[in-house]
Write a structure and sequence with these properties.
196 residues; mainly beta; eight-stranded mixed beta sheet; two-stranded antiparallel ribbon; 1 helix
Length: 196
């Protein structure tokens, strides 16, 4: 561990008898582990010291998938560089933060938070919950699709039948991204279940 030296000295603001706020001086800072102490004269320092880490800002290059419904809840993978495991790791969708789940130094997974309105926001990442990446990638919030009916509503196991789905907000997604999901369970009538 290196010790913070005089060239890393930063101005401090007195808050109260138990709190001081210091600003890290970017021009003199280098990435790595350090210790932080407090001084009143620039020559003698507090005997106690606390661990402190300095890191290069992470970068974000892509997010996949790059769209979600405004009610949120889906999980996206954010790709970039400079990510590390920390309690402050977070993804920011515009001004809304979401907990980041560390995968490796190039990947973070995040659950998309809900948005008030549809639209495009920038996705950024923070390793400490405060400093955000300078670069972000666009993420598109779209209106929640409403499914009201399907016709016909029954089909044989042979497959191949085309059904028509009616509802609302299908145009918010885009023709190339639409998929139909036919679930993962089958509902049997009581008579059919009795015959098995």
């Amino acid at each position: 561990q290196r010790q913070m030296c005089i060239r890393d000295r930063a101005s401090a603001v007195f808050i109260d008898s138990q709190t001081v706020m210091c600003v890290v001086n970017a021009p003199s800072a280098t990435a790595g582990d350090a210790t932080l102490r407090v001084t009143v004269d620039g020559q003698t320092y507090s005997e106690d010291r606390v661990a402190f880490s300095l890191y290069d800002l992470p970068r974000v290059t892509s997010v996949s998938p790059s769209r979600a419904f405004t009610n949120g809840g889906s999980v996206v993978s954010v790709e970039g560089s400079g990510f590390f495991l920390s309690s402050g790791l977070s993804c920011w969708f515009g001004t809304t933060a979401a907990v980041g789940y560390f995968v490796d130094a190039s990947h973070v997974r995040c659950e998309v938070p809900a948005a008030i309105t549809a639209g495009v926001v920038d996705v950024r990442v923070s390793n400490n919950g405060v400093d955000l990446t300078a670069d972000g990638v666009e993420f598109d919030y779209v209106d929640q699709i409403v499914v009201e009916a399907v016709q016909p509503s029954v089909a044989s196991l042979a497959g191949g039948l085309t059904v028509t789905v009616t509802g609302a907000n299908f145009d918010s997604v885009g023709e190339d991204d639409l998929l139909c999901f036919f679930g993962d369970c089958l509902l049997y009538t009581s008579d059919a279940a009795d015959e098995e």
